[in-house]
Amino acid sequence: MKKTIRYTIYLSIMILILLFVNFYKFNIIEFPPDVVVGDNLLKKGDTVTQDFEVKGDNLNSIGIKIATYDNVSIKGEIKATLYDDNNTEIVNKNINLDSIKDSLFYTLSIPEQKESKGKKYKLCINVLDLGKSDQLSIWSSTEYEYKMYLNDTVQDKSIAIAYKCKRKNYYIYIYELFVALFIILIESFVKKKER
Prior knowledge:
By secondary structure, the protein is α+β, with helices and mostly antiparallel strands. The chain contains two helices and 14 strands; from the N terminus they run αββββββββββββββα. The chain has helices at about 1-25, 170-195, and strands spanning about 25-30, 35, 45-55, 60-65, 75-85, 90-95, 105-115, 120-130, 135-140, 140, 150, 155, 160, 160-165. About 20% of the residues are buried.
């Protein structure tokens, strides 16, 4: 009985490790380089836009790093809109600022974009409302090739955009088959030991 529990624990640990490897091996997660807090304080009515190119297929989420300056009771709302390279709207979401954690990436889930590799997308952020004494800015990077626009004026930096793509190819199926065979072998080994 103790051997069965021990093998079950080993098997569970192996499955967790394989799941962890699976997530990072089969997803492209792109983070912007050299990110710093934005020095442009935004106000109600401001619009920030930027193009960016995706390096993988199956784009399924983007992240925006927003600074609320440790104000947990910030009041206001922004609208995040993502357009594809044909200027077709992919997602349009209103976000209450009190749901944003200061200086962490806010994840915007989008319908999976099958052939996103090499395509340009445009992110548009509109400040719909902001409390009079509240401060808001978007983290930025000076090392990114695309420039951000603030109210149609080009800036010398870019929005700190992160994105995630899910890789789907035959390697995944081989990997899943290997995991299934590994589990079957472990189970048969445990059963033989119990006899």
